[in-house]
Amino acid sequence: MDTHLHHNTPPHHDHHPESHFQSSESVRDVVIGMADGLTVPFALAAGLSGAILGTNIVVTAGLAEIAAGSIAMGLGGYLAARSELEHYQSEKKREAWEVVHKPEAEAAEIREVFEGYGLTETEIAPIIAGLERNPEAYVQFMMRFELGLEEPDPKRAIQSAVTIGVSYIIGGLIPLAPYVFLKSHGEAFRLSCIVTLLALFVFGFVKGRFTGSNSWRSALETAGIGGIAATVAYLLAKAFG
Amino acid sequence: MDTHLHHNTPPHHDHHPESHFQSSESVRDVVIGMADGLTVPFALAAGLSGAILGTNIVVTAGLAEIAAGSIAMGLGGYLAARSELEHYQSEKKREAWEVVHKPEAEAAEIREVFEGYGLTETEIAPIIAGLERNPEAYVQFMMRFELGLEEPDPKRAIQSAVTIGVSYIIGGLIPLAPYVFLKSHGEAFRLSCIVTLLALFVFGFVKGRFTGSNSWRSALETAGIGGIAATVAYLLAKAFG
């Protein structure tokens, strides 16, 4: 969901980028998984309640949805992280080749970048000279400054898949639990709404703190999305069910 | 889903970044919405078929899921894009203040960045001098080179929400259609599997072309995720249903 959180990565010259980067990526994965895990099974269960289907059908559909959603998002996250890594590696190979075989073209690219910021020819020349002394740093520089690519952690794909999938499952079991434990259809529905909206509120609040936005607004928005999704699903299922 | 596609943005010195950027972001939104839209309702419907529930229940649950999923992902995309914009703006404000009020600290940060690439003090000094002539470019430079942030398009939040939501709905109606039009439970299930796996295969192939990875592998992986999700949902619903 919060597909843009990663932008909040520490600058490259940070002396302990590893731990910062790791934790912000993991937080993002938990947010991605849990936001949908709380919302979609909740709204689905509410919808099926609108169609006055028995709690056993709600539980069956809810479990099927949690399985489907966690696998789709977890494996999707795995493939996304893996293709990011492959993209980085292939671009890096290309840059490494260009630095050695097309030094004039690379120098021209650097000149273009810095001219865009108003630097003059004489101010840019030392940068190129400095980078040409150290080809490895030159490649790293081009990856980040020309292409805007950060080196992904190779272990991230698996971690990301597991974190997203597990977060989805944990999130999804919260709205479903009342339908498992309560026999009465109406009671289960009401308890599920209360518990899940509360969970979404707390989750949104914590998410707001991590992403640096206003926590109370984030809490209200997250609970609001869940409420809207559940209401629409409820009305739709009631009309068609 | 493909939360990392954005990294494939054109370099800053590109002379027509707007159109490039726009289309790659829209492709990403379609991919995010449609990947889950095809997979989750498909697997849910398959799961409910495993529990031998009537096609009308499958359709009701499927519609409720599509409503819930499209709203959750669409509004989630909206909030993500908006918080990215807010984050960019607040960081830019801070940098603009620092460039004016803490020029030594900014210069030290630039020195640190370029020392990381092996440049010497005398090579770095002209960069700082050049940037200090033009405070606006200085701020832009720090946003991109120190913080690694790209300026987001302010109109993107709404666009992103609609694109993700509509893609989810279109994707979700494909696996559901057979249950709407066919009375026979078994026939609808089989047709849904064939049509959706085919759709996932084609979608994965096209996605592979856009993201620059191997199209055939992308096609197989995308259909594979759908197949695995549907199988697990089917077995789980059969066991609990």
Order of helices and strands of chain A: HHHHHHHH
Biggest β-sheet of chain A, characterized? none
Number of strands of chain A: 0
Return the structural class of chain A. Answer: mainly alpha
Biggest interface found: A-B, 98 and 99 residues
Give the overall shape of chain A: elongated
How much helix, percentage-wise, in residues of chain A? over 70%
Distance between the termini of chain A: 29 Å
Which strand-content bin applies to the residues of chain A?
Answer: under 5%
3D architecture notes:
- 2 copies of one chain form a homodimer.
- By secondary structure, chain A is mostly helical.
- Chain A has helices at residues 17-50, 55-101, 103-115, 121-132, 135-146, 156-181, 185-211, 215-240.
- The first copy, chain A, is elongated.
- The interface between A and B is large, with 98 and 99 residues.
Topology:
2 copies of one chain form a homodimer.
Chain A: H1 17-50, H2 55-101, H3 103-115, H4 121-132, H5 135-146, H6 156-181, H7 185-211, H8 215-240
Helix pairs in contact in A: 1-2, 1-6, 1-7, 1-8, 2-5, 2-6, 3-4, 6-7, 7-8
Protein traits:
homodimer; about 240 residues
Short description:
The structure is a homodimer of 241-residue chains. The first copy, chain A, is mainly alpha-helical.
